[in-house]
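can u do me a favor
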């Protein structure tokens, strides 16, 4: 299918043929009929993407500071590669469209196949032939509203929420600065609410258009004396409210708003400008200043946008979805008309031409509609290279999932290793077609797809990498094993004991050949970790281990905290250190006890945890995992004590060991967390007659982690012998 994409690193715009997105639970797959290019908003997005690296750094100094701190801890080269990986990703343009539902995901009961819907949201209602949209980001189009008008839904709710922030009352005099799409819709909404509107813009033509749409008066900056017009319009009192819908790089719209606003009035910023408030002007009039956030409550809230949870209507009357429904009603009752705002139309195949004209400002239109074919080709897969059988002795791999970790670290390393080890990257599956196509091209995959089952059905694929969210690991592992594939799964192996039992059964009933099943506990394969284990290989007494992790905060709304999706931080990341402790001791976990500090109400659990792990050989590990430290401090430190000797590792880059009078410091040029080592070991096992992959060890540390999580809940130590579990 066609989709308009911008590469954020280079700023390049392109029209790509990408796989159709997957219809996931909690949403609908929509065949777009119309989508809107908003000249002001999208020009800003494109200009930001086209900035140089220095320009992007100036725009986000907070990210630069974080990157510098990370480079000091982990090495410049590793940090630079991660940063470039994050920048080099496709951005789907567009955020407002309308179309027809082609598929309905599970959990959606109020929408049906064939329904006409308006769709909203960046990353969802994009310029593409097919889009997947969560249920809370779409609404039924009334019978008398056409696709042209309904496609303006996102712009409508942004304007509507801006009006709600201004809280206009019947008879108010309200100014609107900036008469692009948002401004023209705002003018109509204010007029419908009973306010008298003063429309202000640089363009006399747009002022004239606003007056035909309901503005009581207008003023063109540069040709009219706007403050004088405002005084006359408000009978000398000033405006009761001013809504800024302009897009400017300086503070002039804000200064103008302060000039024309009345005492005790409200200024609402819906558009974009430099927020440098003239304190004297705002203080003298006691003006309230509000920055409107997109389409209303629910914006940027994953539980609302992605999980489909609505707010109680009695407490939150207007959400993004209810605003969208109301805007569609206003279109139906002709309180708002869109036709005068449509400056041009073009087919999706000609979208780049339309973007060129808005980039130069040559078309002079306010809104551009993209039109889509009634019979698009909804392929779930796209071939990126000519299809060939793998060469003799070549290993072919498939990859499912491509989140931040995969893009920044695992896929680049896998691509590099594959070039020297006779490995073919064959199929890449992600739920987002643009991501699959971009990364498939970048890393040399033969095809990309949004249908992960194609990888299981592909007889030429020997092994599958599972890099999805944690709740999907068990299901995908079992499907891959049943299809006769070897598996590399990113940690954790699974989230529950029942899932662990199902994986264990699938592993040992997979067929005549024992499969390779590796878990992404990469720290086992770090150079310094291997040296530490060898250092204590002939010890005579148990180990005392201390593992300290200064993990940093993860936002409370991140999916990793969801017990059903991410499992929480102890399961999702703490598993690394339980596995590492068992590996360093070369012994099975037998007992685990976990505690955490008291939490603030509403904060996620398992952010500050202490775990005591007993091992079968008598070794004891203490794991301190905390989100309370500062990010500039060392992230991970490992200390091992036995037989009068010590081995310490700091951030997998520095190490010290002491044995008798012998002391030595080891310093690596860059941090080595074992990614290269684990991938090399996995590929070697795929060729070996007797694979060395330690699946029982991974399973045992997974059980210990699951029971550590349970220990947090019960407050008691728990046995975690894997041999008893499988018995």
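np, heres the sequence
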């Amino acid at each position: 299918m066609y989709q308009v994409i911008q590469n954020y690193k280079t700023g390049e715009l392109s029209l790509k043929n990408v796989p159709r997105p997957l219809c996931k639970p909690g949403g609908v797959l929509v065949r777009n009929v119309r989508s809107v290019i908003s000249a002001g908003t999208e020009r800003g997005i494109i200009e930001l993407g086209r900035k140089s690296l220095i320009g992007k750094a100036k725009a986000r100094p907070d990210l630069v500071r974080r990157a510098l701190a990370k480079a000091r801890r982990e090495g410049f080269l590793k940090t630079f590669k991660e940063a470039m990986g994050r920048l080099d990703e496709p951005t789907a343009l567009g955020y407002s469209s309308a179309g027809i539902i082609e598929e309905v995901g599970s959990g959606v009961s109020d929408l049906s196949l064939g329904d006409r819907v308006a769709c909203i949201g960046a990353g969802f209602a994009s310029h593409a032939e097919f889009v997947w949209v969560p249920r809370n980001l779409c609404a039924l189009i009334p019978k008398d509203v056409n696709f042209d008008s309904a496609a303006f839904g996102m712009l409508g709710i942004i304007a509507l929420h801006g009006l709600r922030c201004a809280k206009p009352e019947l008879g108010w005099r309200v100014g609107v600065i900036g008469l692009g799409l948002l401004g023209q819709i705002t003018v109509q909404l204010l007029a419908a609410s009973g306010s008298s509107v003063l429309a202000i813009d640089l363009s006399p033509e747009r002022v004239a258009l606003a007056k035909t749409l309901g503005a009581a008066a207008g003023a063109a900056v540069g040709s009219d004396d706007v403050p004088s017009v405002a005084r006359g319009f408000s009978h000398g009192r000033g405006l009761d409210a001013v809504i800024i819908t302009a897009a400017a790089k300086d503070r002039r719209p804000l200064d103008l708003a302060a000039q024309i606003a009345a005492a005790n009035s409200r200024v609402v910023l819906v558009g974009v400008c430099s927020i440098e408030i003239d304190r004297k002007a705002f203080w003298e009039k006691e003006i309230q200043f509000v920055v409107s956030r997109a389409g209303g409550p629910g914006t940027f809230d994953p539980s609302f946008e992605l999980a489909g949870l609505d707010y109680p209507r009695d407490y939150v009357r207007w959400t993004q979805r209810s605003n969208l429904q109301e805007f569609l009603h206003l279109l139906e009752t002709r309180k708002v008309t869109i036709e005068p705002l449509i400056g041009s139309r073009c087919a999706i195949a000609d979208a780049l031409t339309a973007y060129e004209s808005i980039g130069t400002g040559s078309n002079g239109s306010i809104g551009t509609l993209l039109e889509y074919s009634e019979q698009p080709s909804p392929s779930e897969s796209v071939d990126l290279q000519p299809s060939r059988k793998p060469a003799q002795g070549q290993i072919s791999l498939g990859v499912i999932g491509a989140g931040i970790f995969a893009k920044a670290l695992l896929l680049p390393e896998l691509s590099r290793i594959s070039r020297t080890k006779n490995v073919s990257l064959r199929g890449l599956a992600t739920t987002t077609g643009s991501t699959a196509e971009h990364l498939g091209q970048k890393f040399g995959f033969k095809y990309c797809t949004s249908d992960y089952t194609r990888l299981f059905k592909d007889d030429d694929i020997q092994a599958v990498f599972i890099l999805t969210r944690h709740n999907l690991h068990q299901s995908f592992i079992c499907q891959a094993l049943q299809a006769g594939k070897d598996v590399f799964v990113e940690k954790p192996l699974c989230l529950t004991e029942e899932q662990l039992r199902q994986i264990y059964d699938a592993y040992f009933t997979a067929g005549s050949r024992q499969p390779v099943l590796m878990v992404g506990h990469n720290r086992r394969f770090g150079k310094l970790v291997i040296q530490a284990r060898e250092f204590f290989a002939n010890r005579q007494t148990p180990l005392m281990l201390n593992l300290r992790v200064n993990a940093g905060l993860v936002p409370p709304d991140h999916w990793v905290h969801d017990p059903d999706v991410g499992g929480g931080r102890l399961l999702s990341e703490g598993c690394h250190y339980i596995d590492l402790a068992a590996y360093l001791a070369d012994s099975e976990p037998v007992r685990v006890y976990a505690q955490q500090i008291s939490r603030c109400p509403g904060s996620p659990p398992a952010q500050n945890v202490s775990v005591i792990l007993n091992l079968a050989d008598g070794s004891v590990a203490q794991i301190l995992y905390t989100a309370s430290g500062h990010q500039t401090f060392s992230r991970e430190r490992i200390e091992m004590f036995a037989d009068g000797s010590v081995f310490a590792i700091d951030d997998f880059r520095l190490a010290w060991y002491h044995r008798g009078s012998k002391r030595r410091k080891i310093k690596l040029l860059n941090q080595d967390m074992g990614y290269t080592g684990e991938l090399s070991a996995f590929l070697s096992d795929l060729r070996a007659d007797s694979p060395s992959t330690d699946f029982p060890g991974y399973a045992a540390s997974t059980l210990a982690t699951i029971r550590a999580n349970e220990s947090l809940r019960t407050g008691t130590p728990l046995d975690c012998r894997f041999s008893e579990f499988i018995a």
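The chain has four domains: 2-152+301-371, 156-291, 391-515, 523-726. hope that helps!!
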